[in-house]
Amino acid sequence: MNIDQLPDLPDWDEAKHIFNFNDENEEEWKPNPTREKCKALYGQWQLVFFLIKGLLETIAEEDDIDEKSGEEPLINGAAVVVITDALNVANKIMSSESGNFYVVRMENAAVIRGYARR
């Protein structure tokens, strides 16, 4: 896995289109404190994702690969899990904003907490 080829997380407005969280009934003109909190949290998660990628790049560079055995280094499997979890967290942050359901937000918070504990 080449970590350099992984894209960064898209900005909030781009992510809404990518993750298909465009609510047609959404009224943009109304003040929505939850939307602003989710947007701020997503912005912080973009920084965390950037740091995760940097950490994985550093570990991958230091990992000594035995080319004679032809085995894939252990970091590749761990990197896939970490990056997948990080992308899932971004998805859960976006989906928390898309609905006005308290139960969905709490479920997403529990899932995010689970990913963070890994």
Strand content: under 5%
Contiguous uncertain segments of 5+ residues: none
Radius of gyration: 17 Å
Distance between the termini: 20 Å
Q: Rough shape?
A: elongated
Pattern of helices and strands = HHHH
Number of extended strands: 0
Helix-residue proportion: 55-70%
- Class computed from helices, strands and strand pairing: mainly alpha
What's this entry about, in short?
Helices cover 66% and strands 0% of the residues. The protein is an all-alpha fold and 118 residues long.
Question: Please, could you describe this protein's structure?
Answer:
The chain is mainly alpha-helical. The protein has a domain at 74-118. The chain has helices at residues 12-18, 33-62, 74-98, 102-117. The longest helix is centred in the middle third of the chain and has 30 residues, at 33-62. The radius of gyration is 17 Å and the shape is elongated. 13% of the residues are buried. The mean pLDDT is 75.
